[in-house]
Specification:
Blueprint: E1 7-8, E2 22-23, H1 28-35, H2 38-42, H3 47-59, E3 65-69, H4 77-83, E4 87-92, H5 95-104, E5 109-112, E6 129-135, H6 146-156, E7 157-168, E8 172-179, E9 182-188, H7 191-200, E10 203-213, E11 223-232
Parallel strand pairs: 3-4, 3-6, 4-5, 6-7
Antiparallel strand pairs: 1-2, 7-11, 8-9, 10-11
């Protein structure tokens, strides 16, 4: 995902729902540029994320094409999937994170792009995928955009494709929080609402786990992490 100031995409008429939505990424990419490697230091234990990655590995055919949305440093997910022999493409809006990921996972391909660029008729077409992972990336979007992002992911997946999603369960919308010495904006849903949004976007949930997680830093409070393993309905 690419950092950007508030911009309007009205007038695109691509049928994706973004036509009249104003995208605001102000400060989001810059925060992650500044955080860099400290993100992995603050979140050293990622059992839920690794477990959801294992589900993709066990469920997809050898050599499958998989997209890591919000790939960060590439650790653990892009590396985990690449080590399993998949063709891995990563996307992140932070230039620093993309540079780190390219160093840590040289067998994968990484792009500095915004998820909105990948919508039907958007600025970039990376092709279709057998699986998509989006671990804690959609929570960086305002709630008005999350259903559109899910529709974009549905579009990026081949029929029957698999989608591993993680969110923090919280009833917030574009809410500012301190994060590793920076400020970011996050959104979240209560679990029942998240289920409904996924169903509306055309996904069936086939597996679900949740964890209470305490990051290894004082300025990030404990959180309830939800991991949903989904399949695209044809």
């Amino acid at each position: 995902m690419r950092g950007r100031k508030a911009t309007s995409v009205s007038g695109t008429h691509d049928g994706s729902g973004y036509d009249s939505l104003r995208l605001d990424r102000t400060g989001q990419a810059e925060a992650f540029d500044a955080i860099g490697d400290r993100y992995d230091e603050a979140f050293p234990h990622k059992e839920g994320q690794v477990g959801a990655g294992d589900w993709l590995i066990e469920s997809l055919d050898p050599g499958a094409r998989v997209l890591d949305l919000g790939s960060g440093t590439g650790v653990p997910t892009a590396r985990q999937l690449a080590d399993a022999g998949f063709e891995v493409v990563g996307v992140d809006f932070s230039a620093r994170m993309v540079a780190l990921a390219r160093g840590y996972v040289p067998t994968a391909t990484f792009h500095q792009l915004d998820l909105a660029d990948l919508r039907p008729g958007g600025a970039r077409d990376l092709g279709r995928f057998d699986g998509v992972a989006a671990f804690f990336s959609l929570l960086m979007l305002p709630r008005a955009e999350i259903p559109l992002a899910l529709r974009t992911i549905h579009h990026l997946l081949r029929p029957g494709g698999l989608f591993a999603l993680s969110m923090v369960e919280a009833h917030v919308d574009d809410f500012e929080i301190p994060f590793l010495g920076n400020t970011i904006r996050v959104s979240g849903y209560l679990l029942e609402d998240l289920h409904k949004i996924l169903d509306t976007a055309g996904f069936d949930i086939v597996k679900e786990n949740s964890y209470t997680y305490a990051p290894a830093t004082a300025d990030v409070p404990p959180e309830e992490q939800v991991f949903l393993c989904c399949r695209r309905r044809d």
